[in-house]
C-alpha cells in the first residue's frame, strides 16, 4: 500500500510517517518505479505501534528499544539471549500496565472535575438538568483533587 493508504489506516499524517522513516523507526518495504513508498501490512502495524507508544508518552528512542526486543524475539535467538529478551519484554509489559493505570487515574480525576463543574453550574444557574449531565453519574459527589503519583522506580 502507498503512504496515503497507510496514513489513512493509521491516522498518522504523511509528514509524521516520513519523519518516522527519517529517524529509522519504519522503512518502506519497496518503492514504485516512480519512487513512491510502498508499505506492507507489517510496516503499517509497526507505525500503529509507534502511535500507541506515543499515546503512552514513550519517546521515539524507547520505541526503538522495544522494536529491538521484538525483532530479537522474531528471530531464533540462542536460549540465553531469548531469556534476556523475554525478561526485557516482561519489563515493557509492566511499564505499559503502569502507564495505563496512570491514565485511568487521570481519567477519573478529569471525570470528577467535570462532575463537580456540572454541579457548580447547576447550582449557579438553578438548572434542574444538572443530573442529566453526562458527567453527573460518572463519579462520586465529592471533588477529586490532585492525585499523588508514584515517582519512584516501577
Keywords for this structure?
two-stranded antiparallel sheet; mainly alpha; 3% strand; 5 helices; disordered C terminus; 154 residues; single chain
Account of the 3D structure:
- The protein is mostly helical and 154 residues long.
- The chain has helices at residues 3-10, 14-22, 41-55, 60-74, 79-125; strands spanning 30-31, 37-38.
- It has a two-stranded antiparallel ribbon.
- The radius of gyration is 22 Å and the shape is flat.
List the helices and strands and how they pair.
Layout lengths: L2 H8 L3 H9 L7 E2 L5 E2 L2 H15 L4 H15 L4 H47 L29
Antiparallel strand pairs: 1-2
Helix pairs in contact: 4-5
Mean pLDDT: 86
Gyration radius, in Å: 22 Å
Spatial gap, N to C terminus: 40 Å
* Biggest sheet statistics: 2 strands, antiparallel
Identify low-pLDDT runs: 138-154
Amino acid at each position: 500500500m502507498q503512504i496515503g493508504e497507510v496514513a489513512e489506516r493509521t491516522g498518522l499524517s504523511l509528514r509524521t510517517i516520513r519523519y518516522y522513516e527519517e529517524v529509522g523507526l519504519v522503512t518502506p518495504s519497496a518503492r514504485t518505479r516512480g519512487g513512491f513508498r510502498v508499505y506492507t501490512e507489517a510496516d503499517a502495524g509497526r507505525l500503529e505501534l509507534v502511535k500507541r507508544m506515543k499515546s503512552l508518552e514513550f519517546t521515539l528512542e524507547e520505541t526503538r528499544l522495544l522494536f529491538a526486543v521484538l525483532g530479537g524475539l522474531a528471530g531464533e535467538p540462542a536460549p540465553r539471549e531469548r531469556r534476556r529478551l523475554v525478561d526485557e519484554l516482561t519489563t515493557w509489559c509492566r511499564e505499559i500496565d503502569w502507564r495505563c493505570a496512570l491514565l485511568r487515574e487521570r481519567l477519573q480525576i478529569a471525570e470528577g472535575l467535570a462532575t463537580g463543574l456540572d454541579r457548580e453550574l447547576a447550582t449557579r444557574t438553578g438548572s434542574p438538568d444538572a443530573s442529566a449531565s453526562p458527567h453527573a453519574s460518572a463519579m462520586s459527589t465529592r471533588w477529586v483533587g490532585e492525585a499523588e503519583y508514584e515517582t519512584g522506580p516501577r
